[in-house]
Fold this sequence. Notes:
alpha+beta; elongated; rRNA processing; 4 strands; 4-stranded mixed sheet; Methyltransferase, Cobalt-precorrin-4 Transmethylase, Domain 2
Amino acid sequence: MAARLSFELARSPPKKIRRPENKFESRGLLFLNTLCAEDRENIVVALISDAGTPGTSDPGMELVQKLCVNENIPVIPILGPSAVVAALSASGLSTEEFTFVDFLPKHVESRKDRLLVSSNGSVTQIFYVPPHKLSQFLEETSVYFGDSREIVEPKGEITLLIEGKPLSLTEAPLEEQLEHELGELVHNGHSLSMAVKLVAKGTSVKRKSIYALALRKVGKVESQDGSS
Protein backbone atom coordinates (compact mmCIF):
# COMPACT_ATOMS: atom_id res chain seq x y z
CA MET A 1 0.00 0.00 0.00
CA ALA A 2 2.79 2.44 0.89
CA ALA A 3 4.59 1.86 -2.44
CA ARG A 4 1.35 2.25 -4.43
CA LEU A 5 0.45 5.50 -2.65
CA SER A 6 3.92 6.92 -3.23
CA PHE A 7 3.73 6.16 -6.94
CA GLU A 8 0.23 7.65 -7.30
CA LEU A 9 1.30 10.90 -5.64
CA ALA A 10 4.69 11.28 -7.29
CA ARG A 11 3.95 9.63 -10.65
CA SER A 12 7.57 8.55 -10.77
CA PRO A 13 9.50 5.44 -9.72
CA PRO A 14 10.80 5.54 -6.12
CA LYS A 15 14.41 6.64 -5.68
CA LYS A 16 16.70 3.70 -5.11
CA ILE A 17 18.59 3.71 -1.83
CA ARG A 18 20.64 1.10 -0.10
CA ARG A 19 19.17 -1.14 2.56
CA PRO A 20 19.62 0.14 6.15
CA GLU A 21 22.63 -1.43 7.84
CA ASN A 22 21.04 -1.66 11.27
CA LYS A 23 17.78 -1.07 13.12
CA PHE A 24 18.77 2.49 14.02
CA GLU A 25 18.89 3.54 10.38
CA SER A 26 15.64 4.27 8.57
CA ARG A 27 15.17 4.27 4.80
CA GLY A 28 13.78 7.80 5.05
CA LEU A 29 16.95 9.02 6.78
CA LEU A 30 19.12 7.38 4.12
CA PHE A 31 17.01 8.98 1.40
CA LEU A 32 17.31 12.52 2.76
CA ASN A 33 21.02 12.10 3.34
CA THR A 34 21.46 11.40 -0.38
CA LEU A 35 19.87 14.71 -1.34
CA CYS A 36 21.96 17.83 -1.82
CA ALA A 37 20.94 21.13 -0.21
CA GLU A 38 19.36 22.37 -3.44
CA ASP A 39 17.20 19.26 -3.72
CA ARG A 40 15.94 19.69 -0.16
CA GLU A 41 14.68 23.18 -0.95
CA ASN A 42 12.54 21.99 -3.85
CA ILE A 43 10.92 18.76 -2.74
CA VAL A 44 8.35 17.56 -0.25
CA VAL A 45 8.97 14.19 1.39
CA ALA A 46 6.01 12.16 2.70
CA LEU A 47 6.69 9.66 5.46
CA ILE A 48 3.90 7.08 5.43
CA SER A 49 3.28 3.86 7.28
CA ASP A 50 1.24 0.75 6.50
CA ALA A 51 0.19 0.54 10.15
CA GLY A 52 -0.02 3.18 12.85
CA THR A 53 1.30 6.75 12.94
CA PRO A 54 4.74 7.30 11.36
CA GLY A 55 7.31 8.46 13.86
CA THR A 56 5.85 6.64 16.86
CA SER A 57 7.34 3.25 17.70
CA ASP A 58 8.94 2.93 14.26
CA PRO A 59 12.16 4.07 12.53
CA GLY A 60 10.49 7.32 11.47
CA MET A 61 11.49 8.74 14.85
CA GLU A 62 15.12 8.65 13.70
CA LEU A 63 14.21 10.66 10.59
CA VAL A 64 12.49 13.42 12.58
CA GLN A 65 15.02 13.52 15.42
CA LYS A 66 18.35 13.13 13.66
CA LEU A 67 17.80 15.04 10.47
CA CYS A 68 14.71 17.24 10.32
CA VAL A 69 15.08 18.84 13.75
CA ASN A 70 18.87 19.16 13.54
CA GLU A 71 18.73 20.79 10.10
CA ASN A 72 15.61 22.87 10.73
CA ILE A 73 13.48 21.00 8.17
CA PRO A 74 9.75 21.58 8.88
CA VAL A 75 7.76 18.51 9.92
CA ILE A 76 3.98 18.67 9.36
CA PRO A 77 1.91 15.78 10.75
CA ILE A 78 -1.40 14.91 9.09
CA LEU A 79 -3.81 15.14 12.00
CA GLY A 80 -5.75 12.08 13.05
CA PRO A 81 -8.16 11.52 15.95
CA SER A 82 -5.50 12.23 18.60
CA ALA A 83 -3.67 15.55 18.99
CA VAL A 84 -1.26 13.81 21.38
CA VAL A 85 0.02 11.29 18.82
CA ALA A 86 0.17 13.87 16.01
CA ALA A 87 2.20 16.28 18.15
CA LEU A 88 4.48 13.51 19.42
CA SER A 89 5.25 12.16 15.94
CA ALA A 90 6.52 15.54 14.70
CA SER A 91 8.12 16.81 17.91
CA GLY A 92 11.62 15.39 17.53
CA LEU A 93 11.45 14.16 21.13
CA SER A 94 11.64 10.50 22.12
CA THR A 95 8.53 8.53 21.14
CA GLU A 96 9.60 5.23 22.67
CA GLU A 97 7.82 6.05 25.94
CA PHE A 98 5.78 9.04 27.05
CA THR A 99 3.43 10.20 29.79
CA PHE A 100 0.19 11.94 28.84
CA VAL A 101 -0.57 14.23 31.77
CA ASP A 102 -3.66 15.91 30.24
CA PHE A 103 -4.70 19.27 31.79
CA LEU A 104 -2.99 20.19 35.05
CA PRO A 105 -5.14 20.35 38.21
CA LYS A 106 -6.75 23.70 39.04
CA HIS A 107 -5.67 23.54 42.70
CA VAL A 108 -2.24 25.15 43.15
CA GLU A 109 -0.72 22.53 45.46
CA SER A 110 -2.02 19.63 43.38
CA ARG A 111 -0.56 21.31 40.29
CA LYS A 112 2.84 21.65 41.99
CA ASP A 113 2.76 17.97 43.01
CA ARG A 114 2.01 16.89 39.42
CA LEU A 115 4.79 19.08 37.99
CA LEU A 116 7.26 17.71 40.55
CA VAL A 117 6.49 14.14 39.49
CA SER A 118 6.62 15.00 35.76
CA SER A 119 9.90 16.89 36.08
CA ASN A 120 11.57 13.76 37.42
CA GLY A 121 10.14 11.48 34.73
CA SER A 122 12.70 10.21 32.23
CA VAL A 123 10.16 9.96 29.39
CA THR A 124 8.55 12.68 27.26
CA GLN A 125 5.84 14.54 29.18
CA ILE A 126 2.74 15.71 27.26
CA PHE A 127 0.31 18.33 28.54
CA TYR A 128 -2.91 19.91 27.30
CA VAL A 129 -2.87 23.63 28.11
CA PRO A 130 -5.78 26.11 27.81
CA PRO A 131 -4.70 29.05 25.59
CA HIS A 132 -5.40 31.62 28.31
CA LYS A 133 -3.16 29.73 30.77
CA LEU A 134 -0.17 29.22 28.50
CA SER A 135 1.97 31.94 30.16
CA GLN A 136 1.17 30.57 33.62
CA PHE A 137 2.04 27.05 32.51
CA LEU A 138 5.44 28.09 31.11
CA GLU A 139 6.25 30.08 34.24
CA GLU A 140 5.35 27.24 36.60
CA THR A 141 7.05 24.48 34.62
CA SER A 142 10.31 26.44 34.38
CA VAL A 143 10.60 26.22 38.19
CA TYR A 144 10.57 22.41 38.11
CA PHE A 145 11.97 21.54 34.66
CA GLY A 146 14.66 24.24 34.51
CA ASP A 147 16.01 25.81 31.33
CA SER A 148 18.03 22.93 29.87
CA ARG A 149 15.21 20.73 28.58
CA GLU A 150 13.50 21.10 25.24
CA ILE A 151 9.84 22.12 25.08
CA VAL A 152 7.80 21.76 21.89
CA GLU A 153 4.58 23.59 21.01
CA PRO A 154 3.13 22.39 17.69
CA LYS A 155 1.50 25.13 15.60
CA GLY A 156 -2.25 25.28 15.91
CA GLU A 157 -2.33 23.10 18.99
CA ILE A 158 -2.01 23.90 22.67
CA THR A 159 -0.41 20.52 23.24
CA LEU A 160 2.95 21.00 24.91
CA LEU A 161 5.65 18.34 25.03
CA ILE A 162 8.61 18.50 27.40
CA GLU A 163 11.73 16.38 27.08
CA GLY A 164 12.17 13.71 29.74
CA LYS A 165 14.81 14.02 32.44
CA PRO A 166 18.09 12.44 31.27
CA LEU A 167 18.90 9.30 33.25
CA SER A 168 22.37 8.02 34.04
CA LEU A 169 22.81 4.27 34.24
CA THR A 170 25.45 4.67 36.91
CA GLU A 171 24.14 7.58 38.97
CA ALA A 172 21.05 7.35 41.16
CA PRO A 173 19.39 10.50 42.54
CA LEU A 174 21.17 11.94 45.56
CA GLU A 175 19.62 11.13 48.92
CA GLU A 176 19.30 14.86 49.59
CA GLN A 177 17.25 15.29 46.41
CA LEU A 178 14.86 12.49 47.33
CA GLU A 179 14.56 13.85 50.87
CA HIS A 180 13.73 17.32 49.52
CA GLU A 181 11.02 15.96 47.20
CA LEU A 182 9.50 13.87 49.99
CA GLY A 183 9.56 16.84 52.35
CA GLU A 184 7.85 19.08 49.77
CA LEU A 185 5.02 16.61 49.25
CA VAL A 186 4.49 16.02 52.98
CA HIS A 187 4.55 19.79 53.56
CA ASN A 188 1.84 20.15 50.91
CA GLY A 189 -0.44 17.84 52.86
CA HIS A 190 0.29 14.36 51.47
CA SER A 191 0.67 11.37 53.74
CA LEU A 192 4.10 9.81 53.97
CA SER A 193 3.02 6.75 51.96
CA MET A 194 1.51 8.90 49.18
CA ALA A 195 4.66 11.05 49.04
CA VAL A 196 6.75 7.89 48.63
CA LYS A 197 4.46 6.67 45.83
CA LEU A 198 4.70 9.97 43.92
CA VAL A 199 8.48 10.24 44.23
CA ALA A 200 8.97 6.60 43.22
CA LYS A 201 7.16 7.25 39.92
CA GLY A 202 9.89 9.60 38.78
CA THR A 203 13.02 7.71 39.75
CA SER A 204 14.79 4.41 39.20
CA VAL A 205 15.35 4.01 42.96
CA LYS A 206 13.34 1.17 44.47
CA ARG A 207 10.20 2.20 46.32
CA LYS A 208 11.29 0.19 49.34
CA SER A 209 14.48 2.26 49.60
CA ILE A 210 12.56 5.54 49.25
CA TYR A 211 10.15 4.45 51.97
CA ALA A 212 13.04 3.62 54.31
CA LEU A 213 14.52 7.06 53.63
CA ALA A 214 11.14 8.69 54.27
CA LEU A 215 10.81 7.00 57.65
CA ARG A 216 14.40 7.84 58.58
CA LYS A 217 14.41 11.48 57.49
CA VAL A 218 11.02 12.95 56.68
CA GLY A 219 9.04 10.88 59.16
CA LYS A 220 11.32 12.11 61.94
CA VAL A 221 10.66 15.74 61.03
CA GLU A 222 6.93 15.06 60.72
CA SER A 223 6.77 13.54 64.20
CA GLN A 224 8.76 16.45 65.69
CA ASP A 225 6.35 18.95 64.11
CA GLY A 226 3.39 17.04 65.48
CA SER A 227 4.77 16.96 69.02
CA SER A 228 5.64 20.66 69.18
